[in-house]
Amino acid sequence: MTHTPDPQLFERPINTLVVGCGGNGSAIAAGLPYLHQALLAFGHPGGLNVTLIDPDTVSETNCIRQPFCRTEIGLSKAVVLAHRTNMFWGLNWQGMQAKIEQMKIGAQVDILIGCVDTRKARRALNRLALRSRVLYWLDLGNNAANGQFVLGQPKNAANREKKDRLPTVGELYPEIICTKGKDDNQPSCSAAEALTRQEPFINQNLAYQALAMLTRLLRRGSLKFQGGFCNLASGQLLALPISTPSPDTSTEPVHGQSGKVRKQCLQQYRGFTSQSLCNQLTGTCRCLRVFLKPSVTRKCL
């Protein structure tokens, strides 16, 4: 299956909202100017118009794993990144120290990029996407050495009637926005703990894979996948095939279950340790379980 982009993305500057300016968000912010420049070079009418938001300020620990320095401690992460980007690239992007709940419902957002790490924050993103006219929601999430990026089209007023709408991360994997379970939102208390919780290059890996997918969508005009999974420990990268929402619900993906798919899942999904995500990907194919640890967590950050 092939997905073609919404025509509105080529009619005016693309309003892009990046929520979260930590590890993944700062890596996304560093890569977006390259996409902006490429779009302008190929004749796009305005490229990207980007807004960064994050309620947090720079901490001492952030200076270990994220692109902040000690002289920026105490300043807004979003404002620092926006100012730095504008100074270097000559842009006029915006940075706001704010929570997603403070965003105005109905704000003009074409692409929503979520770089948050709790279920509560993803629920807020999901509400914003459903109550506005967001065309695409790109979600990134990870733990210490593996993670995923998923592109979807929220079932809102702008996308509801589209026949080939891409299901969002919340539809494919409802557990990441469910109210059950305790969010792991405790900050790292030391540099050593920060590096233990997340390896140094997992964020850059996810961010640039996600941006490469966006570039293919906007530059080539089509996609044959809607995300991917990476595992730095095993060195594997796995594309997420395009799914279609079930006709009677917006929360259940439909995947083909041919013998070829079963064989591929045995060969390719080995090494990915999120049982819940893998079960969603392979549907009724249970052969994958032999590669999963008994104590695998069902939580997806």
Question: Can you put this structure into words, describing what you see?
Answer:
The chain has one domain (7-226): NAD(P)-binding Rossmann-like Domain (Rossmann fold). It has 9 helices and 10 strands. It has helices at residues 23-41, 62-65, 77-89, 119-131, 169-172, 191-197, 202-220, 259-268, 275-282, and strands at residues 14-19, 48-53, 94-96, 111-114, 136-142, 146-152, 225-231, 236-241, 244-245, 253-254. The longest helix is centred in the first third of the chain and has 19 residues, at 23-41.
Strand order of the largest sheet: 3-2-1-4-5-6-7-8
Helical fraction: 25-40%
Number of strands: 10
Rg over CA atoms, rounded to whole Å, is 19 Å
